[in-house]
Amino acid sequence: MTAALRGLAGGLILLLGWEAAVRLFAIPPWILPAPSGILATTWTARAGLLPAAGMTLAEATGGYAIGAVLGILLAILLSQAAMLRRVLLPVVVIINSVPVAAYAPLALLWFGTGATSKVIMVAFIVGFTVFLNALDGLTRVDPAGIALLRSFGAGRLSILWRLRLPSALPAIAVGLRVSTVRAMIVAIVTEMLGSQLGLGWTIFEAVLQIDFLRVWAAILVASVMSLAFFGAITLLERRVVFWK
Amino acid sequence: MTEAAGLLDPHLTVGTAPAGREKLGLRGVSRHFGAVHALDRIDASIPEGAFVTLIGPSGCGKSTLFNILAGLLEPDPGGSVALDGMVVPPGGLLGRVAFMPQRDLLLPWRSVLDNAILAAEVQGQPKKEARALAREMARDFGLAGFEDHFPQQLSGGMRQRVALMRTFLFDRDVMLLDEPFGALDALTRSLMQRWLLDIWSRYRRTIVFITHDIDEAIFLADRVLVMGARPGRIRMDRAIDLPRPRAAALITAPEFTAIKRELLEVLEEESLKTFQAGQR
């Protein structure tokens, strides 16, 4: 709680400093608008920003859910097949190390400029992140613990359920946590490259119209949403992985 | 410390060990790991209900032997392990002996009670039933009032008792305990030893107990097996006929020290071999 308060205080100081600097040095708004101006524009432009934000949030969370489930399932499957894992893992790491934005035009080409391409891009990125984290957690289990369960007569499934999965939960949670921000980034970047609705599109469009206050307003909304998403998953993590 | 002291029955109820039929038999058990010869033709017969301790210099293959007895490792071809007079096929010991490894290996996401019933649960016993049994047993194990705590909230001695309770709740005739008190301070350890003897007398199991502490080996046992330097083999099989119940002061008694001297001679010789092998 005190950490949250300190963060809030820090943010407030930053905003006040920003506001003061803009006013003091008379910085033109197309270089850097004052926070008060951004807030005012966010309010006046809310009729356009709200549906855009709703779209981006739906794409990001929808893709996130799909990617998380697929990533965890795939990790569980590969954790049980050592040979296949050794063959596939290097390929996965290579695909994952290419920057996301590089794939975005392909997704638009294949799945159109609607929400589908964004959901697929987000699911792709989140899936890889969660998959790699989960697989690491599932395969890095204390061998002594496995031996103990085997001595109790436990089979593969029993060991998976009673030991591997719970041991992997902290690693899975980390993957899920860092994925929240990535999901928002990927949704917005893909929107910028081609869409009809969404915060990314709003930013792109506003830049073309040289409406920098609206750009900043969209960035503000995206940041707040991203922060809330991250916070929600972090809270969930603390509840589920209570022993860490 | 005091928590463990409260557990001790002032009138220890331990009777004499029965000289029963063979529970666990080792016949010519050897084991190689590549070029390393870990165990060399081990023969031993452990009677039903006996408390047998296994002592030897570090690296003598005690843990390898235990892993074989737990069914986690197979002996080299030619050797065999017999349970109740029947030679056990490969993997056949898994799920048939209660094994307690050196570290407590409690699962941090499970409460004390749920850790204790882990083996029973794996064996398919309904959780509710197992929990009820564990709840009753918690008092004997000095865990009353801590059933719903998590392992990370407990002291080292208590964690070890949870692990022991898990081993006892895994209702098998043979228990393998690998240095269960190795990480405890001397006083707690001494209390836990007497407590274990008390529990053993109440639940009557065959116990094989690894230790590297001579006092502990003699104090607990009906029989002490001394293992030699690598390749591990049984160098001495000494019956301990000290009367039970045994009190803490026993370790200063002349009979006790006489046995200790005898064991020390063999152990020193074996430790020296390991030491010199390391210098070569």
UniProtKB/TrEMBL annotation, chain A:
InterPro entries: MetI-like, MetI-like_sf. GO terms for biological process: transmembrane transport. GO terms for cellular component: plasma membrane. Keywords: Cell membrane, Membrane, Transmembrane, Transmembrane helix, Transport. It comes from the Bacteria. It is a multi-pass membrane protein. Pfam families: BPD_transp_1. Residues 53-237 form the ABC transmembrane type-1 domain. The chain crosses the membrane at residues 50-75, 87-113, 119-138, 184-204, 216-236. Its main location: membrane. It is found in: Cell membrane. Belongs to the binding-protein-dependent transport system permease family. This is NitT/TauT family transport system permease protein.
Automatic annotation (TrEMBL), chain B:
GO terms for molecular function: ATP binding; ATP hydrolysis activity. Pfam families: ABC_tran. The keyword Transport applies. Keywords: ATP-binding, Nucleotide-binding, Transport. Residues 24-254 form the ABC transporter domain. InterPro entries: AAA+_ATPase, ABC_transporter-like_ATP-bd, ABC_transporter_ATP-bind, P-loop_NTPase. The keyword Cell membrane does not apply. Belongs to the ABC transporter superfamily. This is ABC-type nitrate/sulfonate/bicarbonate transport system ATPase subunit. It comes from Humitalea rosea.
